[in-house]
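Try it yourself: sequence plus zinc ion, in.
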Amino acid sequence: MKNITAITVLALTIFCSLSTFAQEDKDKLSDFERYKLRQRQNLEEFVQNREAHLKRLEQDYKNYLKGLSSLQAEYEKNDEPEKAEMVKDMIEYEKTIRKNTNHELTDEDFEDDSEKDKAKIQPAKVKTAKSEEKGKPKVEKQKKVEKPNASKSSKEKPEKQEPETIIENVEELTPKNDADPYTPNLVPLPESASRITSPFGTRMHPVLKREMKHNGVDFGSPMNTKTYAAANGRVTVAQYSKSFGNFIMIEHENGYVTVYAHLESMSVKPGDVVKKGDEIALSGNTGRSTGPHLHYEIRLDGTPIDPDDYLTQQL
Ligand SMILES: [Zn+2]
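Structure, out:
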C-alpha cells in the first residue's frame, strides 16, 4: 500500500512538473509569437510613419515653391526690385537643383492655386485665400506631437488622426548604419566646425526678414573649412548662384542628393565620382550670406528633408 501511494505521489509529481514545463513552453512560445507580432506591427508603423512624414515634407516644399512665386510678385508690386530679384534667384536655384535630380519643375509648381480660381471666385474670397497663403510654408516641428494628446484629439476629430499621429518616432527614421557608404550620414565638416547654427524648417529669413522655410541646415563653419562628401556619389552640379553662392550637388543612391552651398572654393566638377569623406570644397561666405557658414541640404526624390536626422557619422 505504501508503495502504491509512493508511486502515485511520484507519478503525480512527474505529471505536474511535466505540465508545468509544458505550460512554461507554451508561455514562451506565445511570448515569442507576441514579440514577432509586435515587431511586425512596429515595422508597418515605421513604414507608414515614414511615408506620411515624407508626404508632409513634400507638401511643405510644394507650398514653399508657390510661396516663392507669390512673394516675388508681391515685391514687384510693392516696387521692391532688390527683394524681388533675391526671390527670383532662389527660384532659379530650385530649378537648377530639381533639373539635375531629374525632377524638373514646371510653371505649374510655382502657380498660386488661389490665382487659378481667381476668375471664378469673388475678389474678397481670393484675398482671404491669398493672405492665408502668405502664412505658409509652415513646417511641423518634429517630435512635438505628444502621444496622449494625439490619441485624445483623434477621438474627437477622427479625420485628423493621420497627420497628428505621425512623426513620433523620428529617431527610428534615422539611418544608423555608419558602414553604409551610400546613405548621406556623414557630417560634411570636421567636428570642430560642425555646430548647427540654423536648423531645418520655418525660420526668420536672415536677409528678407520674414518667415520662410529653410530647406537645409547651416553649420557655423569658419572660412575655408574642409568640406566632405556625405556619401559615395557623383557630382551633378558645381556652379555659382547669386543666392547660394558656389554650390555643389552630389547624387547618391536611392534618390538621395546632397547640396553644399556658400562655398569659398570647389575642388570637384560635374561628372566627378566621389567617395564618402572625400574633400570636395572649402566652406565660405559666397552668395547672399550673412556670415561664413555651410548651408547643407539632403533631398530625397527632389524633396528637401531634415539633414539633422541623418548626421550620425563624424570623420
Ligand atoms: Zn541655410
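One thing you can check immediately is this: The pocket of zinc ion is lined by residues 198, 214, 216, 218, 295 (CB under 6 Å).
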